[in-house]
Specification:
The protein has 75 residues and is mostly helical. The protein is built from two helices and no strands. Keywords: Membrane, Transmembrane, Transmembrane helix.
Length: 75
């Protein structure tokens, strides 16, 4: 009886260690994936901000052309 309890404790301990190791392995890639996605989004936001700040006259000109074409096509 005591031997069975000892074996069950050993199996439970090994399962806990195995699950703990698996959880640690699974959490780290997920966290790094989120960090990569956030860095990618921030990079694109800074690129969009740079385009708006430096090229706003060109963007305004393109917008005016689009508005005038739309106005004349669909009066």
């Amino acid at each position: 009886m005591k031997g069975e309890m000892q074996v069950q404790r050993q199996i439970r301990r090994e399962n806990d260690e195995y699950l703990r190791g698996r959880c640690e392995e699974e959490v780290v890639p997920a966290r790094s994936l989120v960090e990569d996605k956030v860095a990618w989004m921030l990079g694109h936001l800074s690129l969009i901000k740079t385009i708006i700040v430096n090229f706003w006259p060109i963007l305004l000109y393109i917008n005016m052309i689009g508005l005038s074409v739309g106005f004349f096509m669909f009066p």
